[in-house]
Amino acid sequence: MAVGGGGTGYVPEAEAQLVDASNGAPLFHQIAVILRDRIVSGELGPGARLPSEADICGLWSVSRITAKRALDTLALEGLVARARGRGTTVLQRTRPPSATTRLDGWFENASRMAEATTIHVLGFGYRPAPAHVANELDLTPGTEVQHARRVRRLDGRALSHLESWVPAEIGRGWTEQAMRATPLMRLLAEHGAAPATARQTISATTAPPDVAAALDMVSGAALLDVRRRVVDASGRAVQFMRALYRPDLYRFEMELGRSEGEGGWRTDAASTPERQAGASQG
Amino acid sequence: MAVGGGGTGYVPEAEAQLVDASNGAPLFHQIAVILRDRIVSGELGPGARLPSEADICGLWSVSRITAKRALDTLALEGLVARARGRGTTVLQRTRPPSATTRLDGWFENASRMAEATTIHVLGFGYRPAPAHVANELDLTPGTEVQHARRVRRLDGRALSHLESWVPAEIGRGWTEQAMRATPLMRLLAEHGAAPATARQTISATTAPPDVAAALDMVSGAALLDVRRRVVDASGRAVQFMRALYRPDLYRFEMELGRSEGEGGWRTDAASTPERQAGASQG
DNA sequence: CACTATTTGTCCGTATGTATG
DNA sequence: TCATACATACGGACAAATAGT
User: Fold this and answer.
1) How open is the CA angle A123-A126-A130, to the nearest 5 degrees?
2) By CB count within 10 A, which of A23, A230, B49, B192 is most buried?
3) Cα dihedral: A174, A202, A282, B5 (round 10)
4) Which H/E stretch holds residue B222?
5) Residue numbers in B near A101 (CB within 8 A)
6) B71, B56 in Cβ contact below 8 A?
7) B112 vs A contacts (CB less than 8 Å)
8) HSE on the CB side for A203, CA within 13 Å?
9) pLDDT tens digits, one per residue of B223-269
């Protein structure tokens, strides 16, 4: 029995994607992951039909209850619509990945982003710098730093979770209200620490429960993990931040040409031991 | 009893990270996510001690078996070491994120990467182009394309899962052996489709089981999700590929300066409907 | 050296939720 | 709906290794 056709059809190598009961994760969840990936990858576009419950039973040798739960999970997330007789179809992305960032023109991006989004401050205070933060900011561990946790929203939808550390000598005296209304880059500039350059790494991670809650996601979902170390014109580290982005609402986009620079791909080796815990861990 | 101190100390807002039994995900898994994030974020560096099983019991009100399973999970992943009487400690990253990529100098990166890694071909063949691929390659859906699934390995460890589509008129006649030994960019060049530029988007996704198996990860883990549309000098699309990277072994790294270009941040709106499923989905 | 507290390893029995048939 | 199987989670108990007094 083949894949229940219809719509765009084409379900490649369905059987190659195995689900394993002894895997720890519930079966319905594993199947939901597979189908979700086909949707976000674009393989199943808006309007496309997902395999029916009966198809799923046959494809992965599971009971219909399990198949139904997998599809219901996707429906709860708003990815698909289910209807008797019509099957399960991929919904129009009401708002496709709402925000993309080009990696050139950092300053312009930051300020444009600040204009279009709102900030909610989750936490804000002064505390001794943990080791890895002190390392990034060239401070001795325990030095006081300003720590803030914020959420950026684009027309009501949580876009990113931002955790920022600023040396207390710079961040001293900022109010929570200022942190809500004024872009951090401007606050830094107004306190004699105008950002000049930054070193940024992009990775991925799973959402811990507190971040997941702040971003309206389930715990364990995949997030873009961006770390940025900002220095001013004199080379002093003025901010370290970790931003976690919802991948369905935010992504990076870039044009690749020929050479330009000659920085490039490299394996580990090198990298000084002091920096090990921090930026060069990546 | 407070947080089991020791080592680097500083466990911020431990109690603020709640675990919820009715969340769907198992408790031990939720706790493992929290602790794993503290390790990969650098908060707990090599040698640092994790909270003991008893600590975890108190912090999140779970039984010792649950606490133990959370810690055992991290030990299985090779992140921590456990020993009676000594507790659970973060391991030295024997090989820190083995590979990082600067985003300038695409060609140099690609060839350098090809030198240092090996390729394993998982699947290879010709088939009608699914809609989203045809869209990216400016073909009509159903046109024959060459499709390949490969895994890139760096000294034995799976680094990335690569899925590539090339129009059949270009990719016709390539052998599986050539795809293993010769960089794709060179193969393209040798068939009159020398890559000139590419448009790339970086996002994150969860690992479907087949990809997870190929990369030696558990299904559902977070992956870097990179899509690239390559065009030759005449503007013809010559390849579309989706690369999924292990975030612990690979990440992007870049320097951010002032302006340079004026491409930048934007919200949705715009974007032609035809391109909706693909790169300009954002 | 013993003594103790800490911490993990292993075992038991039981209750609940998930998934199959 | 029911019986069965398994994973999850709880509570408790004891043994073994480590570190400090």
Assistant:
1) 95
2) A230
3) 50
4) strand B222-232
5) 264-265
6) yes
7) 264-266
8) 26
9) 999 999 999 999 999 999 999 999 988 888 888 776 444 344 444 43
